[in-house]
């Protein structure tokens, strides 16, 4: 039975039954049922119809509505993942194309300095592709519940928690940015930056605890990543071997975000901020 059919039955069944009852009562039952008793029996009949037939119809209607909501949620989740996959694919494809160009240039570069710069670019691109692939595996992996059904909605906060769980250092998360505040590309880039920052906390900071704080809305938000490690040295940003930091800086520049790293209150603080002019 379709949603439309159930709706019309709910509207017309009580009317038809009451009308049929009144016809039978006046045509055949008047000698046996008084007018006052008949008037009392009419609402009782309506009640009995409501708690039996109409109750079943409402249950069917609710079931159909739940199925429609589930289908819409599944469709929205699949569309979001498809868009996320497209963004990741574009990033990987661009990096591989750049890699092929740089490799071709290496074959014809005689200048030692230019050769070293090209080698650095190739190594950096390989490093970035590796991170794109790791991110694609982490973000596009479907989670399942006990019934092997696709989880309908995995929020950005859920993905951040998954990243935090990948490291051995306990990380507190306070996420107050609405899910709809970021578009798919922004989600891809912010997750990549958060993953890089979290990995750096574990590998280099020698910290015992970390914090991820996020607040804001669609036009203005800020994500802060802190740790209680040994501190950040500004000269690291200028080192060519600091691939992760350089890639993070490039991502922030591409998205027109502000990236700040500082040491304050015995904590290393990394801030990624979008203002009204950001992507």
From TrEMBL:
Coiled coil listed as a keyword: yes
Coiled-coil regions listed in the entry: 54-81
Highest rank taxon of the organism: Bacteria
UniProt domain Signal transduction histidine kinase subgroup 3 dimerisation and phosphoacceptor: residue ranges: 81-141
Annotated InterPro entries: HATPase_C_sf (IPR036890), HATPase_dom (IPR003594), Sensor_HK_TwoCompSys (IPR050482), Sig_transdc_His_kin_sub3_dim/P (IPR011712)
UniProt catalytic activity: ATP + protein L-histidine = ADP + protein N-phospho-L-histidine
One GO MF term: phosphorelay sensor kinase activity
Membrane spanning residue stretches: 7-24, 44-61
Keyword Transferase included in the entry's annotation: yes
Full protein name: histidine kinase
């Amino acid at each position: 039975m379709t949603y439309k059919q159930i709706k019309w039955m709910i509207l017309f069944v009580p009317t038809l039954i009451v009308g049929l009852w009144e016809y039978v009562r006046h045509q055949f039952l008047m000698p046996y049922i008084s007018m006052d008793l008949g008037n009392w029996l009419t609402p009782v009949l309506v009640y009995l119809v409501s708690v039996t037939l109409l109750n079943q119809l409402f249950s069917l209607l609710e079931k159909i509505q739940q199925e429609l909501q589930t289908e819409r949620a599944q469709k929205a989740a699949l569309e979001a993942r498809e868009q996320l996959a497209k963004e990741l694919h574009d990033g990987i494809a661009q990096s591989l194309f750049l890699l092929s160009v740089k490799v071709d240039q290496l074959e014809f570069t005689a200048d030692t300095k230019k050769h070293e710069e090209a080698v650095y670019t190739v190594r950096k691109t390989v490093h970035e592709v590796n991170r794109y692939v790791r991110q694609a595996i982490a973000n596009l992996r479907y989670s399942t519940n006990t019934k092997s059904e696709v989880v309908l909605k995995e929020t950005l906060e859920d993905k951040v928690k998954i990243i935090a769980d990948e490291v051995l250092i306990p990380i507190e998360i306070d996420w107050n940015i609405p899910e709809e505040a970021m578009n798919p590309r922004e989600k891809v880039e912010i997750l990549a930056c958060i993953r890089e920052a979290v990995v750096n906390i574990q590998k280099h900071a020698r910290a015992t605890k970390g914090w991820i704080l996020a607040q804001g809305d669609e036009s203005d938000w800020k994500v802060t990543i802190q740790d209680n490690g040994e501190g950040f040295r500004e000269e690291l940003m200028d080192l060519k071997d600091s691939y992760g930091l350089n890639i993070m800086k490039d991502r922030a520049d591409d998205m027109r975000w502000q990236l700040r790293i500082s040491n304050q209150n015995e904590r290393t603080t990394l801030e990624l901020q979008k203002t009204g002019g950001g992507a």
